[in-house]
Amino acid sequence: CLSIVSSTLTYDTLRFGEFEDFPETSEPVWILGKQYNALTERDDILSDVTSRLWFTYRKNFPPIGGTGPTSDTGWGCMLRCGQMILGEALVCRHLGRDWRWAGDKKQREEYISILNAFIDKKDSYYSIHQIAQMGVGEGKPIGQWYGPNTVAQVLKKLAVFDTWSRLVVHVAMDNTVVIEEISECRCVATLSCALAEEETALWKPLVLLIPLRLGLSDINEAYIETLKQCFMLPQSLGVIGGKPNSAHYFIGYVGEELIYLDPHTTQPAVEPYEDGQVPDETYHCQHPPCRMHICELDPSIAAGFFCQTEDEFDDWCMRIRRVCFCGSLDSSVAVNFGGICT
Question: Rounded distance, CA 342 to CA 339, Å?
Fold first, then answer.
């Protein structure tokens, strides 16, 4: 986040600057649970990447807290990555994983509602204002850099107020997903919404965030293949992490390279139109995605998964045990991620 060059790039610089094109390779490309062939499906790959919500540094938004910063340049990259991973969950929740963005067409109302949840103003559910102010309760003063666990905890708290999406955000601690805890938190969510319309099922769409440490100062190579396989799961929301004090949103991989969206671009804050529509061009990355060698990844990350239904969660549990089964705990009670041993 401290890179002066990266933090002062503008959107036009990115659109018309030179970018390394996507590699022509026979190795499979995985993007959030979808497999592509780089030789024959390049346009499909770029369409998928462009359709992900891209949240970057912004400037000239209303002061956070009334008197605080009007830009998050230099400190807000992990907060923006948190927005991106949750934004992907909302897209899956309301539009479906196969939804694609087309900038020249009228957008669906659900899409506009999702964007409005992230607009840089104090009353948006997941705005930089809400995340920064909620972070104070996690011991992070406004303007301070977050780690993956902090942003996960903040998103969990903010999701409670999102009565439209009615998600349950569960943060799995100590490398372990305890199935009973997820059952309990979704039941609490159901009770709190018991009077809501069409409230018939116990299950609430689940966003599962799992903070992990995959090494001391560098990623342990023993975890690399398992991390790759997480991007292959149909429930994948990707990974937030990056390099020390420089966060990225990782959405897939090809070969030994991770594919990611980079928030280190300062763009002007967006103001919705009077009719509620949102000028959305700058919320989609319209150039080939960034890539980095997986060994450059900082070992502190948070992996995300979305389960729309209880059947999808059961399927996730089955798949993740196959990916990295440790056998250290009763599989009916917990899924253990001892060093991404899940």
Answer: 8
